Amino acid sequence: MMAWVHPGIVIALGGLLIPFIPWRIVKQAYFLMLPLAGLALLVLTSSGMFGAIPAFPESFRPFSLPFLDYTLHPVRIHNLSLLFAYVYVVAAFCMNIYALGVKNDWEHTAAMIYVGSALGAVFAGDLLTLFFCLEIMSWAPFFLLLFRGTKKAMGAAIRYVLWHHFSGVCILAGILMHIHATGSLEFGLMPWGWGSQYLGYHLMILGFVINAATTPFHSWLSDSYSEATPSGSIYMTAYTTKTAIFCLILTFPGVPLLMWMGAIQAVFALFLAVLENDGRRLCSYHIISQIGYMVAGVGMGTHMGLNGAASHALCHIIYNALLYMGAGCALVVAGTAKFDRLGGLYKYMPISFWLYMVGGFSISGFPLFNGFVSKTMTIEAAELIHNRPIYLLLEGATVGTFLHTGLKLPWNIWLQGRTEPPPEVRFRLKDSAVNTPVHMLAAMGILAFLCIFLGVYPKILYDMLPYPVEFVPFTLTRVFSITQMFIFTFLGFWVLRKLVKGYPGYVLDTDWLVRIPGDYLLRFCTGPLQRMGACLDRIGERAADRIVHTLRNPETEAALNPSLAGAGILAALILFVFFIARHL
Amino acid sequence: MDPNQPISAILVVLIPLLTAFAVPIIGFWRKNLCFYAACTALAAAFWCALHLLIFVHQRGPVDYFLGGWDPPWGIALRIDSLNALMGVLVTFLFSLTGIASKKSVPLELPLKEAPFYALFLLLFTGLLGMILTGDMFNLYVFLEVSSLTAYALIAMGEPGAMVASFRYLLMGTVGASWYLLGVGYLYIVTGTLNMADLSGLLREMEGSHAVLSGFAFILFGIAIKMALFPLHLWLPDAYAKAPSIVSTTIAPIMTKVMAYVLIRIGFTVFHPEYVVQAAKASGLLVWFGILAILFGGISALSQTDFKRMLAFIIVAEVGYIVGGIGIANPTALKGAIFHIVNDAVMMASLFLVGMMVTHRTGGHGINHFFGIFRKMPLTAIVFTIGALAVIGVPPTCGFFSKWYLLLGGIEAGHWAFVAALLVCTLINVALFFRVFDKGLYLHAKAPQSIPEPRIDALTIQEAPLGMLVVGGILAAGILAIGIGNSFIVKTLILPAVPGGL
To answer: N or C, which end of chain B is more exposed by having fewer CB within 10 Å?
Structure first.
């Protein structure tokens, strides 16, 4: 039997070589080979080449490392991690195709490190390895943001890193308290409850919830994803949040809090999307909304809920990459993704419109598209635990999703009822029906195929899930009710289509709570605090001046004032007296 | 020769001391030879320190009696795992900065090579003496040797350095005199200056007010020298305005050596129980550590100068170490000692980056880091690794010492300290990503503050080879300590943790 090779390490370290490959065509081929190599390794793993993979709660651990007093398991393979790993490498392959046109090699490198660390996180068997991978995932996308090169992107990059370091710090504190309490580094089920003895677990769940962009900590997502480079943002949509979902499935299944947060988030994010003018920001709010389904599924904690969360994570990565690619096409070709500056692009890029629509139908959960087979599972799980409000929230969110991503976004970018785009966009377009670069269309094509394929043959998906599935998505009532909902949503939209135009503006979100006080803090630091320091300095310097003056002119009387000896000595004296006085 | 009295114990101090006196004479003859003489002495001292460390680990602590005089009459050097480790750390960093000084000294201190290297070696002697000595008064002497040379070295710097150095001198002298006063109290009470002797005698006098006063004087004297908040006022200016080679040398090491002295006196000379329970000093230290961490972090955030920013980070890092010492359980102390080592290495690498940037761009403001990822890619890599280590990203070494400090804080239930450490991590992220932001800026437009000929975003203008090599060694060291943390903690740090806790 061969030693197991970590696909994450292959991809991340392989990515470091990209800038040093001389010929562009070889470089591109190599760039595409990396995820394929990862895929090959995964296929070998699941075929049992390196050792048999036991059924879900059990796992296969190829090797272990001693660390201090603990044993690390950098690799732990089970069905769930394989499921995530598969979709990660397949998505990475499509994204790499999409990103082939990018000239900046370091952007590829950052993306590959990011993908590799995400794979590392899903294969992590102990909390330290997990933390290590999450930490890399917190700074690798920084570069994807920064390479956009705009002022706004830089601000978003810094905020992104701060958010993720904050969550990382929470997770680290949780891990340390867990170790202190149990002495174990195992990345597995964590206890949950209310009370001070659970503080560490509260911190840990807070970290994961921030990473998963759960309301009210979702604002980093819409903030950063919409500012990244067109291809960089697609990588970002897939990995950070889904890895957090993976962690939640393993550590905190069945925490009721998560169920409520998820259900509320699924609906809340839709309201924020209503006023949105930027295509990519609108898609961001839909990621947040869809994550709500997964978080709710984890919170239910039943086998069906967890299956629903895992399968929805898989499907979500696929269709969401597709949606973002569609919005990204507009950005690459027309130079903007803002609704008020677009419209009428259909004549010039119809293929990307139709591929986008496949994603739109998938995210809305239309029958025969992959969103349907995974989303309904979560909704069904909510029905089975007889929780009416959760069920209604999740079901209701479907309507809003269809309205925004399936109707509003394509209407505004490609149609808006006109045949020609605005003149400032028109001059960028060639007089042909294929303005989108072919590699982008190819990437979208593969993803669109997967969307439909998994929607038609859900068995492939269901066989990969951690728990056995006893769920049939295509029942007559479900198909009928959902079609009905969509038809009426569409009719409503058509009547009001003139009103859903985009208006330039900014949607007020919870990020205000962080952005504005953060800004004030910085201003306080560079303003008053700095001035205070300078003032103290001046006092000190004046004191020093006086000393020098006194030394040089012995005839002047040395006035003994406190600043003469310096503020520091005074402080030392006061402290000293306090210390002594406490004891005497 | 007595096999239990390794000659390297005294050579490690003697070689730099004698070379320091020879360097000015050599300087009269050939200026450029000073560098080689100094480097040879440093390398020899490093070799001796390594030998000493291995010796101590094989045969246990060494008591070296100067001139064959037994204590309490003579002066003894006492070398155990802790100070052998510190010795290797200090000699290692000095050797590296010695190598890096080759190009920087003629540029920043023209015609002052000979005095610079003489002072540099004297500083080195002083620090090593403080580390190795087993005598309280002898420690004071070496403290003054190192401080006086440090004042002189700092005063050589850019405009304003004189004032900064003078302020440092004022406060440093007060600190040193307080230390001396404290030693005087202890001497009056016990009649001895030898640490081992004192430790035995002091155990029976724990209720004495004189001992308490002596302890308090020593504690506050050290606190001033180590720049523990709020006694840090001398530090930022002194380190920011010193010549870059001087700040690269002094900044990482000086405060760490004082932290070592704190551990030595707090846990070897005085009994840990006394410090924790009778004098209740440890709780106080943790709280000042917390304040230092928060204050250092926030002040660093408001700086526009890279070296000043680092200086405030040092204030925060001193807070980490003092907090770890104050918590006083084995885990936290392990973390504190490990952090002394790590912090010295990572601060050295960052100050070195400041030096390289100064060398090429003529300044050390954060604005001077503009586009360094293009212009000075290797420097930028060193900077990245150093910054990640300060933030505490695994697998750099900074993560692992923080790990122990946090674990120690959790074990002791000191949540404020844990929270302060975590908050400071976040502040560090903001600090360094701000610099990354500048360094990576792709569409380089010349900002107003930098003179035109210096800024050329596309051509590579790397720092001199000597500095790059040193930077590479330090960066590799950061990663190596991080990856080999398990081994280092077991073989080097664990034996160095004082017993009796």
So the answer is: N
Task: Choose between A65 and B475: higher pLDDT.
Answer: B475
Tell me which of A106, A159, A170, A180 to substitute to probe the interface with B (most B C-beta atoms closer than 10 Å).
Answer: A180
207-266 of B, contacting A, C-beta below 8 A: 209, 212-213, 216-217, 219-220, 223-224, 230-234, 237
Q: Which of B163, B209, B298 sits opposite A584 (nearest CB)?
A: B209
At B455, the pLDDT band (50, 70, 90 cuts) reads: very low
User: What are the pLDDT digits (tens) for A55-109?
Assistant: 777 788 877 887 767 788 888 888 888 899 999 999 999 999 999 888 888 889 9
CB contact under 8 A, B212 and A583: yes
Q: Are B102 and B464 in contact (CB under 8 A)?
A: yes
Nearest CB to A161; choose among B167, B284, B429? B429
In this predicted model, which residue has the larger pLDDT, A558 or A426?
A426
Q: Which residues of B230-268 are buried (b: 16+ CB within 10 A; e: fewer)?
A: bbbbbbbbbbbbbbbbbbbbbbbbbbbbbbbbbbbbbbb
Tokens, residue B30: 């050939």
B301 within 8 A of A525, measured Cβ to Cβ: yes
Say what the ipTM of the complex is: 0.75
Contact B403 A139 (CB under 8 A): no
Closest partner residue to B220 (CB to CB) among A162, A525, A575 is: A575
Say whether B302 and A132 touch across the interface (CB within 8 A).
no
From B67's Cα to the closest Cα of chain A, the distance in A is 39
> What digits encode the pLDDT tens for the residues A171-226?
998 998 898 888 888 888 888 888 888 888 999 999 999 999 888 888 888 888 88
Mean pLDDT of A1-29: 85
Measured in angstroms, the CA of A530 and the nearest CA of chain B are apart by 6
**What is the crossing angle of helices A151-182 and B415-440, to 10°?**
150
Nearest Cα of chain A lies from the Cα of B221 at a distance, in angstroms, of 9
DSSP bridge partners of A77:
A60
What is the pLDDT at residue A584? 61
Q: Which residues, in sequence order, are CB contacts of A157 under 8 Å at separation 6+?
A: A142, A145, A146, A224, A227, B433, B437
Distances from the Cα of B100 to the Cα of A229, A552, B114, B178, B466, angstroms: 40, 39, 16, 35, 5
- For residue A510, the SS3 value is coil
Q: Taking CA atoms, what residue in B is nearest to A170?
A: B422
Reported pTM: 0.83
pLDDT band at A564 (very low <50, low <70, confident <90, very high): very low
What average pLDDT score do residues A141-166 get? 83
Instruction: Please report residues of A whose CB lies closer than 8 A to that of B436.
Output: 142, 146
DSSP string, B413-441: T-HHHHHHHHHHHHHHHHHHHHHHHHHH-
- Cα–Cα distance for residue pair A465/A81, rounded to 1 Å: 10
Task: Provide the phi-psi class of B328: left if phi over 0, else alpha when psi is between -120 and 50, else beta.
Answer: left
Burial class of residue B501 (count of CB atoms within 10 Å of its CB; 0-12, 13-18, 19+): middle
Q: Which tokens is B237 given?
A: 């200016």
Mean pLDDT score, A541-568 = 60
Q: Which amino acid is at A271?
A: F
CA A529 → CA A543, B232, B306, B317, B426, distances in Å?
21, 16, 17, 20, 19
- Chain B: closest CA distance from residue A523 (Å): 9
A121 has pLDDT over 80: yes
The per-residue pLDDT for range A454-510, each reduced to its tens digit, is 888 888 888 888 888 888 888 888 888 888 888 888 888 888 777 766 666 666 676
Nearest-by-Cβ selection for B213 from A67, A147, A580: A580
Nearest CA in chain A to B304: A526
**Cross-chain Cβ contact A529/B299 below 8 Å:** yes
